[in-house]
Design a protein that fits this description.
This protein is an alpha/beta fold. 39% of the residues lie in helices and 15% in strands. It contains 12 helices and 14 strands. It has a 7-stranded mixed sheet, sandwiched between helices. The relative contact order is 0.16. The structure holds pyridoxal-5'-phosphate.
Length: 379
């Protein structure tokens, strides 16, 4: 049996090695490492795939979120509502820009932002909502857009974990994750669903004026060469990364299918086990399973993890601490117990190996040993 990893990038690379190596050689020969034709090609291919007017490539997903916020002319002290159960980058950029992150709880079954909690958190200072499509399925965008419209707020989607997921509105229209709100952000970190071989990210929008701002901000606030109209950043996707991404984009839907097959295998294996709650897929969104995250109840989770390690099956906790209890983000505003769902999830979640190359032998081995470990660690 192949070694089991959380993410197996090497096996995936071997399948596309010829295409990747050829494209890399092309870039090396051209020496157009920055803003070369490969970046333009990928940008335009991604625009077609997503059905969005503008893709602005940038250095990483965190930059994408930061630049998105910078493009909206927000003022220090303006409030941005997001979830407390996410990767830190979502709130980090809000705080860095002198804006106030206002955290809210999530829904227990989807791990996504609780739309009822959003409306309660709105104040006259609220300017934007940042829903995170956590683990690969979209937040309830129909309700989020309705709230945003009612209170005149921007919506910035953190689609770093959900590229390729499709959201269906009640009128039947469908949109890709990241193209639904005012602006969408994604990451091409190697382990992400569309990952490159280094750092990378992109920003999406259908708004021409915002796209113009975004393109200037990622390039030192420069809208005309050497004329700097605002304080910007330097955030670029390089040509070698664009080459990898342009190859992998063709396989993105197939990759999502492989992930869904593995998730279905896990779901079935754990269906009748009382201590395991398998992830729910929301009716209106497809799931691209960036992570397969389940919950365990009545189990000593530390012991469970140790037992899995003995069997050489890596498992991870995404995430062990909600943002409102992180040292850097603690404030008088928040206390233990403020967001009970997220706090409970942090104690219960376990993410199993999830990638495009899991085979049946590995899945059988993982599920057999996980069931055994749950039994042995039951309280
Ligand atoms: C990965 C990730 C980011 C940050 O992306 P980087 O490319 O690592 O900067 C932001 N938000 C979420 C939800 C992520 O998973």
């Amino acid at each position: 049996m192949k070694n089991i990893q959380m993410v197996d990038l090497h096996s995936q690379y071997l399948k596309i090695k010829k295409e990747i190596d050829e494209k890399w050689e092309q870039v090396l020969e051209s020496c157009a490492f920055i803003n070369g034709p490969m970046v333009k090609q990928f940008q335009s291919d991604l625009e077609s795939y997503l059905g969005v007017k503008h893709v602005i490539p940038c250095g990483n997903g965190t930059d994408a979120l930061q630049v998105a916020l910078m493009s909206l002319n927000l003022q220090p002290g303006d409030e941005v509502i997001t979830t407390t159960f996410t990767f830190i980058a979502t709130a980090e950029v809000v705080a860095l820009l002198g804006l106030t992150p206002v955290l809210v709880d999530v829904e227990a079954d989807t791990f996504n932002i609780d739309t009822k909690a959003i409306e309660k958190a709105i104040t006259p200072k609220t300017k934007a909502i940042v829903p995170v499509h956590l683990f690969g399925q979209c937040a309830n965008m129909e309700q989020i857009l309705a709230i945003a419209k009612k209170y005149n707020l921007y919506v910035i989607e953190d689609a770093c974990q959900a590229i390729g997921a499709t959201y269906t509105f009640s009128d039947g229209t469908t949109k890709k994750a990241g193209t639904i709100g005012t602006i969408g952000c994604t990451s091409f970190f190697p382990s992400k669903n569309l990952g490159c071989y280094g750092d990378g990210g992109a920003i999406f929008t259908n708004d021409d004026a915002i796209a113009y701002q975004l393109r200037g901000i990622v390039n030192h606030g420069m809208f005309k060469r050497y004329y700097h109209d605002m304080v910007g950043v330097n955030s670029r996707l390089d040509s070698l990364q664009a080459a990898v991404l342009d190859v992998k984009l063709k396989y993105l839907d197939e990759y999502a299918q492989n992930r869904n097959k593995a998730a279905a295998f896990y779901n079935q294996a754990f269906a009748d086990v009382q201590q395991i709650i398998t992830p729910k897929v929301h009716n209106n969104s497809t799931h691209v399973f960036h992570q397969y995250t389940l919950r365990v109840k009545g189990v000593d989770r530390e012991k469970l993890i140790a037992l899995m390690a003995e069997k050489h099956v890596p498992v991870m906790i995404y995430y062990p601490v909600p943002l409102h209890l992180q040292k850097a983000y603690k404030s008088e505003r928040y206390q233990h117990g403020d967001f009970p769902v997220s706090e409970q999830l942090c104690k219960e979640v376990v993410s199993l190996p999830m990638h495009t190359e899991l085979d049946e032998e590995q899945l059988k081995y993982i599920t057999k040993n996980f069931l055994e470990a749950v039994r042995l660690s039951s309280l």
